Amino acid sequence: MTGLALAVTAAPARRREDRPGRGWLLLPPVLVLLGFFGYPLVLVVLQSLESKTGEFGLSVWLDVLGSAEFRDAAWKTVALALGATAGCVVLGTFLALVIAFVPFPGARTLSRLVDTVLAFPSFLIALAFTFLYGSAGILGAGGFLYSPSGILLAEITFYTPFVMRPALAAFGQVSAAQMEVAASLGAKPGRVLRQVILPEAWVSLASGACLTMLLAMNEFGIVLFLGAKDVTTLPMLVYGKGIVTFDFPQACVIAVVNVVFSLALYGTYRRLTKGGGRAAVDET
């Protein structure tokens, strides 16, 4: 029996010792990643450091970062992303609470229906809004759709499921016994929500909010399709500089800034999903 126990405990050790020798298996995916992502990104960074006259330096960066056009686009990008994130958190949390804790026929069907939105491209939401709120649409809301408010409403509609799904997963893991004990001690529904339910789900809500903001900051299809007046975000500015005016150095500078913003948000999102909570986005 002792020999068997030693053999069993030694087997994982041997497997762990064998793992370093298989590191070469990581080489192909690393090469593919470097070739299809790393190399183009390096080219973009190098292009951002080269002016139209061929001079290598930070002159293009200084011109772009000092321009009112860039500051306006960065402000509108952040403002729309923050507004969309706030709207998605409020609406997604409310819908998740209703589906999770208010029994009604068709709750599961409604949940699955919301999930289908995740498979849609964003421009379909913009197209649907055009038929509803466009100047020739059913509701005929006039210029509302082609304003920042119209873009904000479209983004909230499209990205709400990205908050709702992790919230549903978190609410589904809240202990019913905790809620029953709190109710038996006289806690009203609002207090149970604040002190029992939401503390259990805050990690999932925060990670869903970070993911929503990351996607909203890089949203291109809705803004382009609606064509809102005086609404130029960073992705739209990259498109305008690179495709319309063929100013590739400036387009690369804006693209690098957008990538830095995205990586910072993604890092926050990963720390939240790893940091704790019984229901994280990755579990959905």
Automatic annotation (TrEMBL):
Domain named ABC transmembrane type-1: residues: 74-269
Entry keyword annotation includes Transport: yes
Compartment list: Cell inner membrane; Cell membrane
Cellular component, GO, one term: plasma membrane
UniProt key word Membrane: yes
Membrane topology qualifier: Multi-pass membrane protein
CDD domains for the chain: TM_PBP2 (cd06261)
SUPFAM superfamilies found in the cross-reference section: MetI-like (SSF161098)
Coiled coil: none
Keywords for the protein's UniProt record, in alphabetical order: Cell inner membrane, Cell membrane, Membrane, Transmembrane, Transmembrane helix, Transport
Pfam families: BPD_transp_1
A Gene Ontology BP annotation from the UniProt entry: transmembrane transport
Main location: membrane
NCBIfam families named in the record: PRK15050.1
Protein name: 2-aminoethylphosphonate ABC transporter permease subunit
Species for this entry: Amycolatopsis orientalis
Source species taxonomy: Bacteria, Bacillati, Actinomycetota, Actinomycetes, Pseudonocardiales
